[in-house]
Amino acid sequence: MMLELDDEVAELHRIIAGGQLSPVFQPIIDFRARATLGYEALIRGPQDGALHRPVQLFAVARRHGLGLALEHACRQTSLRAFAKLGLPGRLFLNVTPGCLLDLQMMDGDARELLAEVGLAPNRIVIELTENQSIADVPGMQEALLHYRSRGFKFAIDDLGEGFSNLRMWSEVRPEYVKIDKHFVNGIADDRMKFHFVRAMQDLAETCKSSLIAEGIERASDFLCIRDMGIACGQGWFIARPAIEPARQLPAHVMSALAQSPLSFSPLSSGTTAPPTAGSLLRKVEPLPHDANNEMAITRFEQNPELGVLPVVKGMQPVGVINRHSMIDRFARPFRRELFGKKCCDQFMDQVPLVVDEHAGIQELAMMLALAPKHYMLDGFIITSGGSYVGMGSAHDLMATITEMQISAARYANPLTQLPGNVPINEHIDRMLTTGTEFVAAYIDIDNFKPYNDTFGYRRGDDVILLLSQLVRESVDQRSDFVGHIGGDDFFVIFQSADWENRCWQLVSSFAERVEAMTSPEESAHGGYMADNRRGEFGFQRLPTLSVGAVRVMPGQCESHREVAAAASVAKKQAKKRSKESSGRFSGSVFIERRRLGHGDAHSPVLRLLN
Asked: What's the rounded Cα separation, in Å, for the pair 148 and 134?
């Protein structure tokens, strides 16, 4: 349906003046908290009109110089609808950079509207859209300070679409950065996209920004993005935009989150499962959202140990009231008489930190480390299926993390500080219990004893520390586990799909680095003259690596002992073939292809690095 020039101007004026704009809201999930971070407001024109789709609507507005007027109408409509629906979390509002300098927005219009609908500015994220260059940089910086001083947060859209996005990132310093959907769609099957997003993530961590992956449409991409450690996600797999979006995450999303791979950090609680936010839960009777301030003050007076009061609407958490902040306000003359009967949301933080009971302890600690300081005092609300169940404190979280660190240190190898036999066995048993497929790799240094005896333990320790460093670098630290059995023996539990390539890269890197550590003469001959294990003087080859790997499928093994035995056999095969190699610098990776406990259906595969 096409409109003539005069008709489209008239239609646009009618839409703006007649309130015919309709916002829809799409949820944004926080992977770390396993909860909804907030909603992006997306605008629509009249359902059956030519300007229903936002692309046509804004194109016509820009063509006729009505862009700012349309944006103003969109903001008002979205804010009113969001407040009327009572949606939790933050509201992401799309704004063009030039709109930030609009006097209608700068001169208190937005603040007055927020006060009218009862939304705190810190719940609003101004999402800067379009690849517009910022001509007035000083004016923009002043505007950013203006909005931030009032509590607004910022996001930039479509990272990766052009270099202007990177420039905007450096100028705006946003709290959130959205990854363009081109890099998200199909990332589970595209290594190039994976590495592009990994680079974006490294940059975000340096800039203390949280990434939001847009356009997640497949379960495989959802899991890949989550496993990479990206903070947040948005897309049709999670939920489509809707006039009245769900307040809780859909069942299929919760099911996908439940497939979380096991964390293989050196931190270990020594239990059968890693601790979660639910282990920190403390029962605190919440305050209903329509309670008055007098009721809140009374609760604090009755319980001197109560630091914060959670506020709920039904069973949905909507905020927290800090004890010290509220008592300080009411300590002033006549405050109790003036505000005692008014609603408690007047002094409530409308954007509390809300996490699901299954959120991991370490992810939660990272969230608090990057969050505003007041969250350390207020703690966090814990939910189950989106409903309030209790509170958690930063003090309890830090105590748990400390306990995990002490436990990890107790069983760590004193030289490399890597987890030793006890945590290795615990991790293997946990993998077997959860029915997770993995690859167990036993890594051993060939020709190490004569090298250590000849050149001394200091140089021998240097080789072990070198291997420790290379092993850490060769694995995916978000999914793979590295342990040090003792001496020159290491153990890796791989979940990364490219584990075989990682093993070969490790063998190759070790050979290169050992060669670089040797003298020119030793390097030229590939070894040195020394006594062997039997006390016989002769030529000794330089240290190399042997890796024995075995794939463990669900149900194949009952305990870590079986896995360790199978990996040990594979390692012996690798060492045997490594000794038979005639190359100066060699190493081997032996991959046991036979299914454990199922006979010799397939032959083992061995390759040598020469």
From this structure: 18
CB atoms near residue 22 (< 10 Å)? 16
135 or 311: which leads in pLDDT: 311
Instruction: State how far the alpha carbon of 312 is from the alpha carbons of 82, 320, 333, in Å.
Output: 18, 9, 29
CB count within 10 Å of CB 172 equals: 21
Round to whole Å and give the CA distance between 272 and 315: 31
Q: What tokens were used for 572? A: 């012996």
Task: Output the six-digit token pair for 300.
Answer: 């604090």
The two beta strands, 124-128 and 354-356, are: unpaired
The alpha carbon torsion through 95, 98, 101, 106 (nearest 10 deg) reads -20
Distance, CA of 284 to CA of 391 (rounded, Å): 6
Nearest Cα residue to 277 out of 182, 364, 186, 172: 364
348/317 Cα distance (integer angstroms): 12
**Nearby residues of 78 by Cβ (< 8 Å), 6 or more positions away:** 23, 41, 43, 91, 93
Whether residue 608 is predicted with pLDDT greater than 80 in this model: the reply is no
Alpha carbons within 13 angstroms on the beta-carbon side of residue 239 total 23
d(CA 305, CA 393): 13
Pairwise CA distance, residues 381 & 280, whole Å: 11
Rounded CA-CA distance 313/509 in Å is 58
Contact 32, 358 (CB under 8 A): no
Stated pTM of the model: 0.74
How many CA atoms does the CB half-sphere of 307 hold within 13 Å? 15
Q: Report the alpha-carbon distance of residue 533 to residue 510 in Å, rounded.
A: 23
Tens of pLDDT, residue by residue over 176-227, are 999 999 999 999 888 889 889 988 998 898 888 999 999 999 999 999 999 8
In whole angstroms, give the CA distance from residue 475 to residue 76. Answer: 50
For 558-576, the pLDDT digits (tens) are 999 999 999 999 999 999 8
Do 476 and 436 touch, CB atoms closer than 8 A?
no
128 token code pair: 């800067």
pLDDT averaged over the chain? Answer: 86
Amino acid 324 reads H
Pairing relationship of beta strands 481-486 and 438-446 according to DSSP bridges: unpaired
d(CA 86, CA 80): 10
Spell out the alpha helix ranges (H) of 35-130: 54-63, 67-85, 103-104, 110-117
How crowded is residue 184: how many other Cβ atoms within 10 Å of its Cβ? 28
Amino acid at 251: A
Angle formed by the axes of helices 54-63 and 5-17, to 10°? 110
